Amino acid sequence: MTAGRKVAKAAGILMIAMFLSRILGYVRDMVIYAQFGQNNLTDAYNAAFSIPDFIYSLLIGGALSSAFIPVFSSYLAVEKEKDAWRVASTVFNLIIILMLVAIVFGIIFTPSLIRLLVPGFDAENIALTVIMTRIMFVQTFFMALNGISMGILHSYQNFLAPAVGSVLYNLGIIIVGLLLMPYFGPDFGIIGFAVGVVGGSIFYFAMQFPALLKIGLRYRPVIDLSHPGVRKIGKLILPVLIGLSVTHFNLFVNQNLCSTLPQGMISALRAAQRIMQLPIGVFAIAIAAAMFPTLTGYAAREEKEDFKKTMSLGVRTIIFITLPSAVGLIVLREPIVRLLFQQGRFTAEDTAATAYALLFYCFGLFAYSAIQLLNRVFYALQDTKTPVTTGILTIVVNIILNFALVKPMGHGGLALAYSLAGLLNMVMLLLVLRMQIGSIDGRRMLASFVRTLGISVVMGMAAYYSALGMERVVDTGTKLGQFLQVDVGVFTGALVFFILVYLMKMEEGQLAFSLFSKRIKRKA
Fold first, then answer.
1. Which of 298, 328, 370, 437 is the most exposed place for a label (fewest CB within 10 A)?
2. Contacts of 505 (CB under 8 A, 6+ apart)
């Protein structure tokens, strides 16, 4: 099987699984918001993720994407499997030790940290946030196991088990949360979903463990700090840890400012961001994750032309898919939010607040999609300093924009600041990459972007007016009417988009279609 076909197969598996995972993620949010509304309870639930997510991202997220997978995959690429597993065992043992220490200290100091993060919460809401945060620390341990397992399996080109595990994660939250909600009562039933987060993480690992055994798990209780691979990971990961710390500081500032706004705004931002991230999760992350081992292999074997072609193909395809997605979400934002969430205790005012944030988040959707691949391009080159440096610069800009825009625009200003920072980050990564490796097919990328944007604007107009026309035909106060309005808008927009792509004979369209049919050819 050629490298292109392997990437296509992997991307196909990841897209399907991530689509299912995101759908279940929506179902999870829909259940929570329908049961509790968009208010202080859901604000507390969303805020409770902050510290556990910070620990996980710092020790696992950055380690996997920036250092572990490139080093582990490079050993596999040159058939040094014994070295690869010694490195993996050392990294695993170190991370588990650090994770346990961090969790213990996190649990002890949770009250102080929560008061610092969300000073706008009242005493009762802070107490609720503390309880759920401490529960979610247990989830952090299992997510550490999941992250390391995923890195190993991806390096072996095994994408199915981690993908299915991510689906089970959201399913576990829903099932466990609904089962335990009555136990905690009407005022604190949301704690059941915090426990559900732990259950989902356990299901996730249970799905991956058999796959690890199948590829020949070679874990050893060893910490070999003198191994060249371990030392290389240490060298690569240090700047990433700094960058992630700054990234989460930005998130903490964002949450701190949002806690001083009316109740429900933290939840509105989180709901809007999750909708915006649907195309990123289904398409951009899937393509980037599938291409990452291939890019790492090309870099390890110094196959520069294949490396550039794969990178260019990935960026153009990601933008071709996610730019029209952003336009579609912008023009249909209110009907989509109404369809997804407006039921139970989720009101029309909650819909308006979420749609307002979604509008500004979508401005940066394609940029954050491209960044998913561009960061991995640098990691494949074993350059972690560039993504971190550009990331820190854009985060500083983001924080400045947060303070500048939150007063005149409310939570919408925080969303806009996030998008503008993402656009800046993408541009800087492309400029630095060109300086490092020479031509990156920049003119072709720019021409593709301009054509895709033009077609997307026409598509957006068609989607908007068709959805607007449906308001005269159906009752949008019912779920059936809401579904028909969104469905007609999406279908009309997609039809116009594909017709224009066909008439203009855009190569990116052919590449995207071949990706979905798993027939990517090695061309750029």
1. 437
2. none
Where residue 261 falls (left for φ over 0; alpha for ψ -120 to 50; beta otherwise) is beta
Q: What is the domain range of residue 49?
A: 40-238
Residue 251 and residue 50 in contact, taking contact as beta carbons nearer than 8 Å: yes
Q: Which residues contact 513 (CB under 8 A, 6 or more apart)?
A: none
Task: With beta carbons less than 8 A apart as the criterion, state whether 474 and 346 touch.
Answer: no
DSSP 261: S
* Helix (H) / strand (E) containing 352: helix 348-361
Structure token pair of residue 461: 């107009």
Cα 446–Cα 278–Cα 384 angle in degrees, nearest 5: 60
Tokens of 505: 């004979």
Note the pLDDT of residue 515: 55
The residue with greater pLDDT, 201 or 144, is 201
Does residue 92 belong to any structural domain of this protein?
yes
Q: Residue 183 corresponds to which amino acid?
A: Y
User: Which of 37-51, 223-237, 358-372 reaches the highest mean pLDDT?
Assistant: 358-372
Beta-carbon contacts of residue 112 (< 8 Å; ≥ 6 apart): none
**At residue 3, does pLDDT exceed 60?**
no
Q: Which amino acid is at 279?
A: P
- Say if residue 355's pLDDT is above 90: yes
End-to-end Cα separation, the chain, in angstroms: 19
49: nearest Cα among 204, 267, 207, 202: 267
Dump the DSSP string for 278-334: HHIIIIIHHHHHHHHHHHHHHHHTT-HHHHHHHHHHHHHHHHHHHHHHHHHHHHTHH
Q: Find, among 9, 494, 1, 2, the residue nearest to 289 by Cα.
A: 9
Chain centroid, CA 303 distance in Å = 29
pTM, 2 dp? 0.72
Tokens standing for residue 135: 């529960």
Q: Where are the alpha helices (DSSP H) in 216-262?
A: 228-258
Q: Residue 449 and residue 452: Cα distance in Å, rounded? A: 5
Residue 510 contacts by C-beta under 8 Å, 6 or more apart in sequence? Answer: none
Q: Work out the burial of residue 362: count CB atoms within 10 Å of its CB; fewer than 13 is exposed, 13-18 middle, 19 or more buried.
A: buried
Is 50 a domain residue?
A: yes
Q: Which two tokens stand for residue 520?
A: 């990517």
Q: Is residue 114 part of a domain?
A: yes
List pLDDT tens digits, range 174-226: 999 999 988 887 778 889 999 999 999 999 999 888 888 888 778 788 888 88
Share of the chain above pLDDT 70, in %: 90
As separate numbers, helices (DSSP H) first and strands (DSSP E) second, the chain gives 22, 0
The reported pLDDT for the residue numbered 133 is 92
Here the tokens at position 216 are 């020949």
Phi, psi of 79 (to 5 degrees): 60, 45
Rg (CA), the chain: 23
Q: Which residue has the tokens 């993060």?
A: 117
Query: What's the total number of domains in the chain?
Result: 1
